C-alpha cells in the first residue's frame, strides 16, 4: 500500500510530530516551531527557504524531470491552541495552557516528510513544489492572508491542503467537490446598563439579565430566520459580567461565532443579531453595541483537481478509502490561498476508539492516531508527482 521510501520515513515522521506536540505555540507566536522546521528543511537540502512573515515559512523544491513544468503549493498550518492538555502521554504539552488540539502538529510533520521525499527523488517531478508552513490558522485574520499579501503564492498554479479529522476513521479520505467549509464570522456584544447593590435591583438597569436574554434569543436566528435547507450555526461562546456576588454590574460582554455558506444568509444573521441585541437592551433600559468581525470565506474545491485527487487516492488505497462528505462547519483560512487559482482540500480520518483518538478537535483530551500520518504523506507524495508529471495534463484548459 505504501512506497518503501514512505514507510522508511515513518519513525522520523512520528518523532517530528511528537516534538511539535510537546512544544506547542499559539497563533502568531510560533517562533521556535519555525526554527525547528527550518533546521530540518535545510538538512533535507531544499533548494530555497523564504520567510515572508515573522513565523511563516516556505520551502521551494525544484524537480529534475523533463517536461512542461508547473508550480504547486502544499500547505500545512503549524499553530496550537490556548488549551491546557489533559492527556497522559509521554510527549504531552510542556507549555502550560497551550496544546496542539487540532492536528496541526501532524500537518506540519507530514509536510516535512513530503519535503524530504521530494528532495530525495527530484527526478520524479517537473517544476516546483512549494511547501508552505503557515502560521496562525486558528486566530483571525489568520496567517494565510498575510502570506498571500506577502507574495507567498505568486506564480503558484494550484494550492493543496489537508486536515486530519477525528470525524472519520483512520485512513479514510473525506472528499467533496465545490464548497467545502463554511464562512467564519464572529461578533462581540457589549451591553451597558446601570450597576448597583443586588438588594436594590429596581435602582439598576441590569446588563447581565439583558445579555442572558440575548444569549437565548440569538439562538432563534438559525431556527426561525434561516431557511431550514441552508446550513448555519450561531454559538455564543463567551459571557463575561460582574465582579462580586452582591453587585449588579454595569456592563456585560458576549462573544459569538457564526458559520454560514451563502452570502445572503451571512448578511441575514448579522442583521437579525443587531436587531435582537438592540431591542432586548432597550427593553431592559440598557444599550448594546454589536461589533461584527468578518472572517474566513469558504474553501471551494475545484472540480478537476477533486477528480484528480480521487484518481490518485483510488489508485493507491482503493475506492473504499474515499468517503463522500457534505459541507463542514469548521472554517479554514486556506480559502485565501485559492483566490486566483484552483485548489483542493481533503479531510483525512484519525478516529480509532480503541486508541482513544475519537475526542473532538479543540478538546483538552484530543488525541491523534499516528497511523493516519503515513496515509497523508503517501497521498501528498502521489499527488505532487501526478500534478508535476511534466505533461500538464491536470492544468491545460483550466481557468
Going by CATH, what is the homologous superfamily of the largest domain? Answer: Zn peptidases
The termini sit apart by 34 Å
The top-level CATH class of the largest domain is Alpha Beta
Order of helices and strands: HHHEEEHEHEEEEEHHEEEHEEHEEH
Structural class: alpha/beta
- By CATH, the architecture of the largest domain is named 3-Layer(aba) Sandwich
**Helical segment tally?**
10
Sketch the major β-sheet.
8 strands, mixed
Using DSSP, what is the number of strands?
16
CATH topology of the largest domain: Aminopeptidase
Question: On the 0-100 scale, what is the average pLDDT?
Answer: 97
**Arrangement of strands in the largest sheet:** 1-2-4-3-5-16-6-15
The rough form would be described as elongated
Runs in which pLDDT lies below 50 for 5 or more consecutive residues are none
Radius of gyration from the alpha-carbon trace, in angstroms: 23 Å
Give the % helix. Answer: 25-40%
- Taken as a percent bin, the fraction of beta residues is 15-25%
Q: What oligomeric arrangement do these chains adopt?
A: single chain
Structural summary, described in words:
With 399 residues, this protein is α/β, with parallel strands linked by helices. It is 31% helix and 25% strand. Helix 3 runs parallel beside helix 4, helix 6 (207-218) runs antiparallel to helix 8 and helix 9 crosses helix 10 (371-387). The longest helix is centred in the C-terminal third of the chain and has 21 residues, at 263-283. The model has no long low-confidence stretch (mean pLDDT 97).
Amino acid at each position: 500500500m505504501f512506497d518503501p521510501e514512505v514507510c522508511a520515513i515513518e519513525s522520523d515522521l512520528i518523532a517530528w510530530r511528537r516534538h511539535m506536540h510537546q512544544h506547542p505555540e499559539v497563533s502568531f507566536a510560533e517562533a521556535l516551531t519555525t526554527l525547528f522546521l527550518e533546521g530540518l528543511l535545510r538538512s533535507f537540502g531544499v533548494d530555497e527557504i523564504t520567510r515572508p512573515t515573522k513565523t511563516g515559512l516556505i520551502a521551494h523544491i525544484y524537480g529534475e524531470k523533463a517536461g512542461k513544468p508547473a508550480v504547486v503549493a502544499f500547505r500545512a498550518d503549524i499553530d496550537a491552541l490556548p488549551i491546557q492538555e489533559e492527556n497522559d502521554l509521554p510527549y504531552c504539552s510542556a507549555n502550560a495552557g497551550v496544546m496542539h488540539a487540532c492536528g496541526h502538529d501532524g500537518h506540519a510533520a507530514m509536510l516535512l516528510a513530503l519535503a524530504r521525499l521530494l528532495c530525495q527523488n527530484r527526478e520524479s517531478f517537473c517544476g516546483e513544489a512549494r511547501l508552505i508552513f503557515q502560521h496562525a490558522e486558528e486566530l483571525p485574520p489568520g496567517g494565510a492572508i498575510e502570506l498571500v499579501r506577502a507574495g507567498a503564492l505568486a506564480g503558484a498554479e494550484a494550492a493543496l491542503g489537508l486536515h486530519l479529522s477525528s470525524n472519520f476513521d483512520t485512513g479514510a479520505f473525506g472528499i467533496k467537490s465545490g464548497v467545502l467549509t463554511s464562512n467564519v464570522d464572529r461578533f462581540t456584544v457589549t451591553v451597558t446598563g446601570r450597576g448597583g447593590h443586588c438588594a436594590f435591583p429596581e435602582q439598576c438597569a441590569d446588563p447581565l439579565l439583558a445579555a442572558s436574554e440575548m444569549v437565548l434569543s440569538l439562538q432563534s436566528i438559525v431556527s426561525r430566520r434561516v431557511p431550514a435547507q441552508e446550513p448555519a450555526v450561531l454559538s455564543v461562546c463567551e459571557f463575561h459580567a460582574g465582579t462580586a456576588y452582591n453587585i449588579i454590574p454595569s456592563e456585560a460582554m458576549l462573544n459569538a461565532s457564526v458559520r454560514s455558506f451563502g452570502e445572503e444568509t451571512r448578511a441575514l444573521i448579522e442583521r437579525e443579531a443587531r436587531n435582537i441585541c438592540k431591542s432586548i437592551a432597550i427593553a431592559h433600559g440598557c444599550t448594546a453595541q454589536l461589533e461584527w468581525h468578518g472572517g474566513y470565506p469558504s474553501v471551494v474545491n475545484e472540480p478537476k483537481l477533486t477528480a484528480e485527487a480521487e484518481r490518485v487516492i483510488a489508485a493507491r488505497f482503493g475506492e473504499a478509502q474515499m468517503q463522500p462528505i457534505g459541507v463542514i462547519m469548521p472554517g479554514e483560512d486556506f480559502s485565501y490561498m485559492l483566490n486566483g487559482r484552483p485548489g483542493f482540500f481533503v479531510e483525512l480520518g484519525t478516529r480509532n476508539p480503541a486508541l482513544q483518538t475519537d475526542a473532538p478537535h479543540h478538546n483538552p483530551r484530543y488525541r491523534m492516531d499516528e497511523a493516519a500520518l503515513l496515509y497523508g504523506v503517501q497521498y501528498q507524495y502521489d499527488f505532487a508527482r501526478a500534478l508535476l508529471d511534466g505533461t500538464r495534463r491536470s492544468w491545460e484548459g483550466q481557468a
